[in-house]
Design goal:
It contains 36 helices and 27 strands. It is an alpha/beta fold.
């Protein structure tokens, strides 16, 4: 290919194959050309180098070497949505990485060495070398270097003279076509030919779209000889000259290639679209007509009838939901009219479309499809697009990724249509995918949330803060059916025992020594689990029941254990908890402790708590809740007078909260100028921090005895988790403290309700030490906006994902509702114990059972959410696992995890969203493109 001279550029842009370069009837040529000069200060479109890369990089087994400074390759490689069924060398980024000395001295020698290194390391069948602005400016002779490399290395090295400054992305497409014509096409022969051989030109297999069309061609007996260039191998392009027909998919991109192949090889070409039912049907019919065989035409009509009958049935529910929705389309080339056709097939109205990259022929089709009231946008930027959307009252924008965040930040539904997308929209199967994506984009519950003003604004003040937790659109979900596992065999237990939950609650009290009244094994198992989960030293002790004491009674063991811990560990408080063994034999703990007090009056000031937590009923959540009830019910003495006038606020932190969650809740409350008393406060004891003090045998942080005394002075109780409602009622009966239960603090509405209640508490007080000028701190107002933005960025990946969850009830509630509010579906829910929340979960059925029950119902899910034991099910069913709950022994940082508040919700949103994002490409490779598989 010759160097890009002004004359060569003009030749490519005044392409005779373009409609606007045809002659008038009087013989005059229009000479408008395809070139559109970029406007300084306003241009954001791709350059010629970008266009050449788009067209050639999809050749999957070739190496693509960018000759220039790092920016051209470093800023662009790996961003294309073209997929491959075999080779993946095209995904690697190769560049000569020109430095200052290279620019001064010239980069030809470096280029030659780079090509040689490429061959040595990767053995590609060919190397495409792309000129860039800098290397063209300094005069590097790309043609000569490639010729020398080809001869010396016995390897096809193809020069692509595509410096960005010569023109637009469209010109780059045509430059790439010239490179293929000059150096590749016609250099090899196929093993055989058939009368039904066609080439696809300008189809780049974005998101695997071509894979939806190939099965249709195969059913008709049509062979795609060469794909130019989506999912292509270098060799197949070499023998593209033997095809009987060229099918242009994006005519403006490589029209010069189709025209010249017709001139040089006698291959006719047609322009077709793979988008929309009517266009797909026309495409198949036109190909059959061009090939000219009657039997092929008959097969084509039969195939169209079969496929469209199934398709119409599948699309009908989507049409009902999409009918009349108004769309602004902003894309280029063939998509500027073919997507209109697809949208109309679904009953949608396209009110405006871009013609910036459209040929005159494209524009004629657009005008016909849009009608007289449709708007043709010759130019467009963010401001213009938003104005058109507002003026036309459009419901959504369909455009490329460059405009995605313009739409989303304006809270306008968006569908990505250009090359970076992850969803295939071509073919009959693609129509279903497009309908599904349009439906999810328009009807996602996310829109209701991101358009919702902050509830603490004056016009949104509510007495019932819980009213804003659940979206109005999700309030009519029918009650879930709760099934209790009755199989005599429990497989892969999900629940942890009540004693373990009790120990966890006790560990949130400073200076605590939890004591299991049972055998030493009960304590050992719990200790190992907690150590592995939190990666912390866990203080636990045991009454070490033996065979003899099990028969005779455990009173002496309790006494000895208490005295031993007082002597050795010097605890500030001891928390006794029973186990299945001691509950079964019937040890009277109240009597045992009363006698211990009588025998040891010197320990009267030492709080010794006791809670009944048999293993044979309930779960860890139940044991945790029972222990918190015991903690708040105990009399710790009168509060110590304090100097601060800031009010105390009690936070009852449920078992669903990790240490990082508890810390976030504390930070939020403190941000309102309030003093939180958290019960229990595992953020201070299990968060993973170093201490400078000498070794302590008891918990090194947590709620202090002084704070427990000050519960009587608290202005209000916030209950995080339904399971702690009884504990709040105890405080209300004991001290008259009003309370509010927040079943979850994950999700926009849930956090809004928490912030609103805090705001109301601050505003209602007359304390002069409080800052009444700002009901909600600016920090959290900004975090709210960040969360809304994150929800918009990620909602594409959550829509109708099937998720199966196995967690304790409180955590199951928080997680399920958060996911449902993001548009996901809860396919299956398994939990450990009964709870009033279960019937209100957003799913059809809830099972109180084990992980064996989860395995039975989880097949077909997109994601599993449970503890580390779910790994076995994940591997067996081939479903991704997101670890949550306890135990998590194969991941780090459990003490710092945070899923509450605006910030924690964002953490969870991105964690799960990234799993779905990673799944996108792999799912495309495994799609069954038969409509029968869907119907």
């Amino acid at each position: 290919m010759a160097m890009m001279t002004p004359g060569k550029v003009a030749e490519l842009m005044n392409e005779p194959g373009c409609e606007h370069n045809h002659k008038h009837k009087n013989g005059d040529k229009k000479q408008k050309g395809c070139q559109q000069q970029a406007t300084p200060g306003a241009a954001q479109g791709g350059c010629a180098f970008d266009g050449a890369s788009i067209a050639l990089v999809p050749i999957t087994d070739a190496a693509h070497l960018v000759h220039g400074p790092l920016g051209c390759s470093g800023n662009s490689w790996g961003t294309r949505g073209s997929l491959s069924s075999e080779a993946h060398l095209y995904k690697m980024g190769f560049t000569t990485d020109m430095g200052e000395n290279d620019i001064i001295m010239g980069g030809e020698k470096k280029l030659l060495k780079a090509i040689a290194e490429l061959k040595k390391r990767y053995q590609p069948p060919a190397v495409f070398v792309y000129a860039t602005c800098v290397t063209s400016l300094i005069g590097d002779d790309l043609e000569t270097v490639c010729k020398v490399a080809t001869k010396k290395l016995e390897l096809p090295v193809i020069p692509v003279n595509s410096p960005g400054f010569i023109g637009s992305k469209n010109l780059g497409n045509r430059v790439s076509a010239e490179a293929l014509l000059d150096h590749v096409v016609g250099t090899s022969e196929p093993e055989f030919t058939t009368p039904y051989d066609i080439n696809l030109i300008g189809e780049y297999n974005i998101a695997g779209e071509m894979w939806a069309m190939l099965p249709l061609f195969e059913k008709l007996g049509i062979r795609v000889l060469s794909k130019i260039t989506g999912d292509a191998t270098y060799k197949e392009i070499c023998y593209a000259h033997r095809a009987k027909l060229n099918v242009m998919i994006c005519s403006k991109a490589m029209i010069n290639m189709a025209r010249k192949m017709e001139e040089q090889y006698g291959i006719p070409y047609i322009e077709e679209s793979f988008y929309g039912v009517a266009d797909i049907n026309n495409c198949l019919r036109n190909i059959a007509a061009q090939l000219g065989y009657d039997d092929l035409k008959e097969r084509t009509e039969k195939l169209i009838a079969e496929e469209t009958t199934i398709l119409q049935e599948i699309l009908e529910p989507y049409r009902q939901r999409l009918k009349g929705k108004r769309v602004v389309l902003y894309t280029g080339g063939v998509k500027s009219w073919s997507i209109i056709s697809a949208a109309k097939d679904l009953g949608m109205d396209v009110v405006a479309t871009s013609t910036k990259k459209s040929t005159e022929e494209d524009k004629a089709k657009i005008k016909k499809l849009l009608g007289k009231d449709g708007i043709l946008l010759e130019k467009g930027n963010a401001e213009i697009l938003l104005k058109v959307i507002a003026d036309t009252k459009a419901d959504m924008l369909i455009a490329g990724g460059r405009n995605q965040y313009t739409a989303l930040k304006a809270r306008i539904p968006f569908l990505h249509i250009n090359q970076e997308r992850h969803h295939p929209y071509a073919g009959y199967h693609g129509m279903i995918e497009m309908a599904k994506e349009l439906d999810e984009a328009l009807h996602s519950p996310v829109w209701e949330q991101v358009r919702q003003p902050a509830p603490w604004l004056e016009e949104c003040q509510l007495e019932d803060v819980s009213a804003i937790e659940t979206l109005p659109s999700l309030t009519n979900i029918p009650p879930a059916t709760v099934n209790v596992h009755k199989n005599p065999l429990s497989t892969n237990p999900l629940k942890l025992s009540q004693p373990l939950g009790a120990a966890l609650a006790y560990l949130g009290i400073k200076g605590m020594m939890p004591m299991f009244h049972g055998t030493q094994g009960c304590t050992a198992f719990a200790k190992v689990l907690l150590v592995n989960h939190f990666q912390e030293a866990i203080p636990l002790s045991t009454t070490a029941m033996s065979e003899v004491t099990t028969i005779l009674g455990g009173e002496d063991n309790v006494d000895k254990a208490l005295l031993t811990q007082v002597e050795k560990s010097k605890p500030e408080v001891i928390g006794l908890l029973t186990t299945g063994l001691t509950e079964t034999r019937g040890d009277d703990m109240e009597r045992i402790l009363k006698k211990f007090r009588e025998d040891n009056p010197e320990l009267d000031e030492l709080p010794i708590l006791n809670v009944s937590t048999p293993d044979y009923k309930g779960s860890a959540q139940d044991g945790f809740a029972a222990t918190v009830e015991r903690i708040v019910a105990y009399d710790y003495g009168e509060p110590i007078p304090r100097e601060t006038k800031k009010p105390f606020i009690t936070i009852l932190a449920g078992s669903s909260l990790a240490p990082g969650d508890v810390q976030e809740v504390k930070d939020i409350v403190e941000g309102f100028g309030l003093i939180p008393i958290v019960v229990p406060d595992i953020s201070q004891s299990l968060d993973g921090h170093l201490v400078d003090d000498i070794y302590s045998a008891t918990s090194t942080g947590g709620t202090t005895i002084e704070e427990l005394r000050n519960l009587s002075q608290s202005a209000f109780t916030f209950v995080i988790g339904e399971s702690l409602r009884n504990a709040a009622q105890i405080l209300q009966e004991k001290f008259g403290t009003q309370y509010q239960v927040f079943p979850r603090l994950t999700g926009l509405g849930a956090v809004d309700s928490f912030m609103l209640k805090l705001s109301q508490l601050v505003v209602s007080r007359t304390d002069p030490h409080l800052d009444r000028g700002c009901e909600v701190p600016q920090k959290y107002q900004r975090q709210r906006r960040q969360l809304q933005d994150a929800m918009l960025d990620t909602h594409f990946y959550f829509g109708h994902k099937q998720i199966s969850i196995a967690l304790e009830p409180d955590l199951l509630w928080a997680t399920s509702w958060f996911l449902r509010e993001m548009g996901a579906d809860i396919k299956a829910a398994v939990t450990t114990t009964r709870s009033p929340l279960l019937e209100k979960l957003p799913t059809e059925n809830v099972t109180v059972g084990d992980l064996g029950d989860l395995e039975e119902v989880a097949a077909g899910s997109d994601l599993l959410i449970t503890n580390s034991h779910g790994k076995l099910i994940s591997e067996k069913l081939g479903i991704a696992l997101y670890r949550m709950g306890m135990p998590i022994h194969d991941r780090l940082g459990n003490g710092q995890r945070c899923y509450v508040g605006y910030r924690g919700t964002m953490n969870l949103l991105f964690d799960i969203g990234n799993i779905f994002l990673e799944q996108e490409e792999s799912k495309i490779h495994t799609n069954d493109y038969s409509l029968l598989s869907i119907s």
